[in-house]
Amino acid sequence: MSEIPKLKDALLEVADKVATLTFNRDDVRNALTGTNLIDDIVDTLDWVEHASEAHVLVITGAGKGFSSGGNVKDMHERTGMFSGNVEDIAAAYKATIQRIPLKFSEISFPVIAAINGAAVGAGFDLTAMCDIRIASTRAKFGENFVNIGLIPGDGGAYFLQRAVGYQRAAELTFTGRLFEAEEAKNIGYVLDVVEPDQLLAHAQRLGAQIASKPPYQVQQSKLLMRKAQVMNLPDFLDLTALVQGTCHHTEDHKQAVAEFVKRR
Questions:
Q1: Local structure of 262: helix, strand or coil
Q2: Residue 238 buriedness (CB in 10 A; 0-12 / 13-18 / 19+)
Q3: Contact of 174 with 146, CB cutoff 8 Å
Q4: Among 200, 60, 43, 198, which residue's Cα sits nearest to residue 119?
Q5: Between the CA atoms of 12, 13, 19 and 23, what dihedral angle is there, to the nearest 10 degrees?
Q6: What pLDDT digit, counting tens, does each position of 53-109 carry?
Q7: Which pLDDT score is estimated for 194?
Q8: What is the reported pLDDT for 25?
Q9: DSSP 143
Q10: Domain 10-211 carries which CATH code?
Q11: pLDDT reading at 50 higher than 80
């Protein structure tokens, strides 16, 4: 058993093979910049990738919001990662917020976003990096960078169109408008919308259901789905055949087939 990482601005709990990461900076609406949440997210993703006691991660926020993304006060005062010339700010983005999408691109386990409140800017883009999104009826969303004269500097333009298609992603990005949980479900951005007091339990139950399945097969399924977005079909099918051949030789497959035949 590996030691759970010591986080500074978030809480991490594990039950039923599901790790739950809760942002704990409601005082700044769980802003990712100007806090330790970037490190907390990256450290948690690293830990779950190598932990035997957790096969699925649920991410949520404490307080009223999921995450407000970048700290606008710091932008106004031009402090922290928002200070300096163009090259300084570009380097700061690469060294901080962009660590999150790069880490998400490396992990093999499923991630569920339990969106308890507002998820805007980089907080919205973080939800787009997750495999499955469950929203509270109180959730609000917005790819609202254009409203403050910015672009999605954290990879949102990459992830959002993969979640809702180019045309809808373009509309949301170009207008910067906010939208509610029900619309998020209607456009296919979130899987389910539930009452606030049911949100975390709902996400954790789904996580536990996934975590109960053979971990290698779940992880390979996720990786294949991601690779399908960038590979041509012949190469993808070659890779699929190789992974499937490996699955046929796993104990999980052999046991499942034996039990199926026995039931018949």
A1: helix
A2: exposed
A3: yes
A4: 60
A5: -30
A6: 999 999 999 999 999 999 999 999 999 999 999 999 999 999 999 999 999 999 999
A7: 98
A8: 98
A9: -
A10: 3.90.226.10
A11: yes
Residue-wise pLDDT tens digits, 111-155: 999 999 999 999 999 999 999 999 999 999 999 999 999 999 999
Q: How many angstroms separate the CA atoms of 43 and 48, rounded?
A: 9
Banded pLDDT at 12 (limits 50, 70, 90)? very high
Model pLDDT, residue 1? 63
- Give the distance, in angstroms, between the CA of residue 33 and the centroid of all CA atoms in the same chain: 17
Confirm if 26 and 37 have CB atoms less than 8 A apart.
no
Buried/exposed 70-108: b ≥16 CB within 10 Å, e otherwise: bbbebbeeeeebbeeeeeeeeebbeebbbbbbebbeebb
Query: What is the identity of the amino acid at 138?
Result: R
Three-state SS for 87-141 is HHHHHHHHHCCCHHHHHHCCCCCCEEEEECCEEECHHHHHHHHCCEEEEECCCEE
Burial of 262 (0-12, 13-18, 19+ CB in 10 A): exposed
Element (H, E) at 194: strand 192-194
Which of 185, 55, 199, 178 lies closest to 114, judged by CA?
A: 199
Is the CB of residue 26 less than 8 Å from the CB of residue 63? Answer: yes
Residue 186, token pair as written in the block: 């209607």
